[in-house]
Amino acid sequence: MLFLKSAYKQLKMNPFMNVLIAIQLAAVISILFVLVSLIESRLEYYMPFREEFSSQGYLCNIDVTDLEKDIEEAIGDAQLVCSYWDYLMVNDQDAATDPIAETYIYSDKYLDAFTPTMESGEWLDKNSEYDGVLHAVVTPNNPMNLKLGDEFTLSNVEGVSQKAVVIGVVGDSQYTVGASFFSQTDMGNNNNFFDMYYTYNSEVEVPSNHWGIYLTEEEYKSSNFYTGDMIVYGMAFVLTEGLSYEEHQQVGEVMMTNWCAIYIRELSEINANSFDHIKEQLYILLPIALCIFALTIITSISVISISVSGQLKTYAVYYICGAKWSSCSLISLIYSLFICIVSSAISVCALLVIKNRTDTVISFGLWEIATMVVTVLLFIILSALIPLAITHGNQPKEILKKE
Q: What residue spans of 211-266 are helical by DSSP H?
């Protein structure tokens, strides 16, 4: 308790200097936080499919619709990882004249992999409770004017129908996985992980009345539309792990001949190009991060040294009154802990304001929090060690005699 009171007294003795130290530390924490978010954002689109990209096989754009079982039979022991499609009309549309939606049905793998930015509502959830009404996400500015909360009826060409409700509207020009009937992203067609992502761009799609509906595989299989097999469409992986080179080549030829003549790439090529892209980004950011980290250490040592030097006479009085230099170090540590709490609060508040008011890559993930904790711990540890280094070999009387 005595140490807490002494540390608090130190805070009140020089409020202006303490405010400057807190703001400086908050700025360092914030900059490191943003840099970690930037680095993590470079991996955001690679990580969901890192296992597939690092496997043997192909990344394909299946642009000829076919049943999943027929493709699996043709590729033998290779594994197909994909999502699905169906031709469904909304509220008794006329297939001959009305703009029919591209209905993309997400498999669990694709659903778990990536969540796009939403304009309103929520993204699909494979664990949502199905009550006979399909939960649907729609593209923005769609010709049927479907919005969050709207109920509508889906039907196929056989006259089978099913109720549905809009639980979300995907953001305009936001990345979505695999839906290759929409536009490629701004980074697409580079033979890397970005080829897996497509975006609905209103400026391109709306004039042609092109739009989409997203459903989950789980709910679709429970609906009236499911007849025992699924229609495959869009970006897919064909994995040939364990197959010989000749079998691997044969699978590629079968896929290219029948279902993906426009786009089929070796996963080894995709993975290599992906790492090249990531390394290019990290080569830019890592030196900046290292420089800021070095600056953090230098700044921390300087600030703590100045603070301790200003408190030397106080520590000398404590020493004369019976305290040890290690006790003075503990007081400095507690004092720095107060500073760190205030600095972290300032940093988090500032980052939240920036994140909520601007379109940034700032995220409050595990690595960002770890960076903040490491920075704070470094400051606190130095706060405990530097007083010992400065007071080592000094006598209290000598310190009190100095002007």
A: 217-222, 245-258
DSSP letter for 136, please: E
Report in angstroms the alpha-carbon separations of 332 from 250, 263, 335. 70, 63, 5
The token pair at 278 is 């990531």
- Classify residue 266 as exposed, middle or buried by CB count within 10 Å of its CB (0-12, 13-18, 19+): middle
Select from 393, 402, 301, 379 the least CA-distant residue to 29. Answer: 379
Helix ranges (H only) for 102-141 are: 108-113
Amino acid residing at 377? L
Distance in angstroms (rounded) separating the CA atoms of residues 232 and 214: 14
- Other CB atoms within a 10 A radius of the CB of residue 95 amount to 10
Distance, in Å, from the CA atom of 273 to the CA atom of 192, rounded to the nearest integer, reads 5
Distances (CA, A) of 95 to 87, 92, 164, 173, 208: 10, 9, 19, 27, 15
Express each pLDDT in 91-131 by its tens digit. 888 877 888 888 999 999 999 888 998 999 999 988 888 88
| Residue range 145-175, pLDDT digits in tens | 899 999 999 998 888 999 999 999 999 888 8
Q: Tell me whether residue 49 is exposed, middle or buried, using C-beta atoms within 10 angstroms of its C-beta: 0 to 12, 13 to 18, 19 or more.
A: buried
Residue with tokens 């200003």: 310
How far is residue 198's CA from residue 51's CA, in Å, rounded to a whole number? 20
| DSSP class of 152 | E
Letter for the amino acid at 23? I
Q: How far is Cα of residue 95 from the mean position of the Cα atoms in its chain? A: 39
Burial class of residue 388, CB neighbours in 10 A (0-12, 13-18, 19+):
middle
- Cα 59 to Cα 83: distance, rounded to the nearest angstrom: 13
Please give the average per-residue pLDDT across 206-221, as a whole number: 86
The SS3 of residue 256 is helix
How much is the pTM? 0.73
